[in-house]
Write a structure and sequence with these properties.
- 21% of the residues lie in helices and 11% in strands.
- It has 76 residues and is an alpha+beta fold.
- It has a domain of 49 residues.
- A two-stranded antiparallel sheet has the order 1-2.
- Strand 1 and strand 2 form a beta hairpin.
- The longest helix has 16 residues.
- The protein starts with 11 loop residues before the first strand and ends in a 19-residue tail after the last helix.
- The model has no long low-confidence stretch (mean pLDDT 80).
Length: 76
Amino acid sequence: METVNHMKNIHAIYENGVFRPLGEVDLPDHTEVEFTPRPVSENKASDQLDATYAILSESFDTDELKLADRHNEHQP
C-alpha cells in the first residue's frame, strides 16, 4: 500500500517559466511533485489575511484573571 504524505498548501509565483515558492517548502531537493496550478487573487488573499490579523491583534480587557475557567459557561 502506498503511503500518501499530506502537506500544507504551498504558495508560489510563476516567473520566467518557473514556479517559485513564496515560503519554506518541506521537501528534499530534487523531489518530483505533481500539482494543478490554481491562480489566486493576490489582493483578495492579502486583504483577508490583513483583516484577520487586525482582529487577532486587538486586545480585550475582561477584568477577569481566569477567563479560561468560564469557557464552557454558555454551553448546553
